[in-house]
Amino acid sequence: MGARMSGRVKDIVFDSFLYLFMIAVGIVTLYPFWNVLAISFNDATDTVRGGIYLWPRSFTWNNYKEIFMYNNLIVAFQNSVLRTVIGTLLGVFSSATVAYVLSRKDFIARKQLSLLFVLTLYFSGGLIPGYMLMRDLHLMNNFWVYILPGIVSAWNIFVVRSYIDGLPYSLQESAKIDGANDLTIYLRIILPLCSPVLATVALFIAVGQWNSWFDTYLYNSGKASLTTLQYELMKILANTTAGSSSADLARSGNPALSTRVSPESIRAAITIVATLPILLVYPFLQKYFVQGLTLGAVKS
């Protein structure tokens, strides 16, 4: 009886320590975002004084109103949403299609093609050859430069293929006996069963597309109509941390912006605007994200 009570006490102590540790990790993780959120809702003039931690000292919506007066922000937001939606749909479909082909045991070039994809994970042509390739393909100042280069990802292909390999192959054999062809098997059997891993890959691609700004800087910086939200965020952050914020902001977008909003409030507000959409999507995909990464690694 005493040993059992001692074991229960140890379990309670361990669980308490574990809960406290996870709470501490959660606080450390969430505090930076919460602090930025508090600053974004604080009056710009009051923010200059500093000392904003958990709650805005002088609550206001003016920071967000001023941010949406920025010349290129609406266009940048539209382009970011468009590239994220199109890039995610095409990327998921292409990754699933290639993964299905590589998972087929009767595919003759399966090993050779898999090795070719593996090599792309370790080696790349580099920045300059990539730039020259985009130029020769006439993708400079073109919206499709956001979509086509990343439409096939070796990492996503192997994630999906690993999941397909964990599915019972007898399902495909039974479908063939019933007269189903490869396309029917892929569309009606494989894709529905792969919904967890496809949601996982969709999250990977969507986050990458939404957060990308360097391709805009390389290929589309000369065309304002093709700018993206993260690229505009990068410009504002670079300008507001450079020193003379008024002159820099006047060159980067709306010159009146710097006279009404402090640089720190600009950084906080536009960071929230750029981060919030992808944070709202993640909870709906979280359960699929966990299933996609765990079930695909188990074979029956």
TrEMBL record:
Report the locations given in the UniProt record: Cell membrane
Q: Gene3D superfamilies from the entry?
A: MetI-like
Q: Where is the ABC transmembrane type-1 domain?
A: 77-285
- Annotated transmembrane regions: 12-34, 81-101, 113-131, 143-164, 185-207, 266-285
Pfam families referenced in this protein's UniProt entry, alphabetically: BPD_transp_1
Instruction: Name the source's superkingdom.
Output: Bacteria
Entry keywords, A to Z: Cell membrane, Membrane, Transmembrane, Transmembrane helix, Transport
InterPro entries assigned to the protein according to its UniProt record, in alphabetical order: MetI-like, MetI-like_sf
Q: How does it sit in the membrane?
A: Multi-pass membrane protein
State whether keyword Transmembrane applies.
yes
Which family is it part of?
A: Belongs to the binding-protein-dependent transport system permease family.
- Name-wise, this protein is Carbohydrate ABC transporter permease
Source species:
Paenibacillus chartarius
